[in-house]
Amino acid sequence: EAGVAQSPRYKIIEKRQSVAFWCNPISGHATLYWYQQILGQGPKLLIQFQNNGVVDDSQLPKDRFSAERLKGVDSTLKIQPAKLEDSAVYLCASSRTGSSQPQHFGDGTRLSIL
Amino acid sequence: KNQVEQSPQSLIILEGKNCTLQCNYTVSPFSNLRWYKQDTGRGPVSLTIMTFSENTKSNGRYTATLDADTKQSSLHITASQLSDSASYICVVSGQTGANNLFFGTGTRLTVIP
């Protein structure tokens, strides 16, 4: 099966600019996750979708981050305006429904803020 | 507080040698524990997943163990290869709540010829 697709792979922007990331999960996976991974750390969950509904966004900085999954398939994550501390890799993952289901990760978007 | 701690932070071994990575957690209640391998510049890939009732699971040269009583897990790599160079991340799933996945910070393994 095709894996989780993410784009772009790399993005460089200046602080206070806006940026958007796109994710296409594995077909049939109802659950979609966005993670932020700062260099040398484990991934930190930003938001979890179940189909097109938000299950958990408690760690999403809502003053600058937003995410949507309008049709329950693809998802976009946006940052507006970006701060220096947003420099990280943004990983998208998907899974079938159920806590025992493994997550399948994309290769991420590496964001650098100048 | 739900936490996952991994040790060592980094490890260098010679090709062909064995190694063991540790994961201690305080997540409660517990649902399952997963080990992921993350190559540089790539997303994590699942190696094993173990539930409360399982105390060992293998995936090729990777063998994970779980002691749910002491809340410890280990990942043993046998006959290491250069391609094993990666970060290994331990992830523990709690039973309640939507945000029930707790990630360790990983062990960076380097295998040298």
Describe the structure.
The complex is a heterodimer of chains A (114) and B (113). Chain A has 114 residues and is an all-beta fold. Chain A has no helices and eleven strands. Chain A has strands spanning 5-7, 10-13, 19-24, 31-37, 44-50, 53-56, 65-68, 75-79, 88-95, 104-105, 109-113. In chain A, a hairpin with a 6-residue loop joins strand 7 (65-68) and strand 8 (75-79). Chain B is mostly beta strands. Chain B has strands at residues 4-7, 10-14, 19-25, 30-38, 45-51, 56-59, 62-67, 72-77, 86-94, 101-103, 107-112. In chain B, the strands form two sheets. In chain B, strands 2, 4, 5, 9, 10 and 11 form a six-stranded mixed β-sheet that branches. Chain B has a five-stranded antiparallel β-sheet with strand order 1-3-8-7-6, with no helix packed on it. The radius of gyration of chain B is 14 Å and the shape is globular. The relative contact order of chain B is 0.34.
Q: Spans of chain A with pLDDT under 50 lasting ≥5 residues?
A: none
**Mean residue pLDDT of chain B:** 92
Shape of chain A: globular
What is the alpha-carbon Rg of chain A in Å? 13 Å
| Mean pLDDT across residues of chain A | 93
The helix-and-strand class of chain B reads mainly beta
Record field, number of beta strands of chain A: 11
**What is the tally of helical segments of chain A?**
0
Oligomer: heterodimer
**By helix and strand content of chain A, what is the structural category?**
mainly beta
Q: Residue share in helices of chain A? A: under 10%
Outline the secondary-structure elements:
The complex is a heterodimer of chains A (114) and B (113).
Chain A: E1 5-7, E2 10-13, E3 19-24, E4 31-37, E5 44-50, E6 53-56, E7 65-68, E8 75-79, E9 88-95, E10 104-105, E11 109-113
Parallel strand pairs in A: 2-11
Antiparallel strand pairs in A: 1-3, 3-8, 4-5, 4-9, 5-6, 7-8, 9-10, 9-11
Chain B: E1 4-7, E2 10-14, E3 19-25, E4 30-38, E5 45-51, E6 56-59, E7 62-67, E8 72-77, E9 86-94, E10 101-103, E11 107-112
Parallel strand pairs in B: 2-11
Antiparallel strand pairs in B: 1-3, 3-8, 4-5, 4-9, 6-7, 7-8, 9-10, 9-11
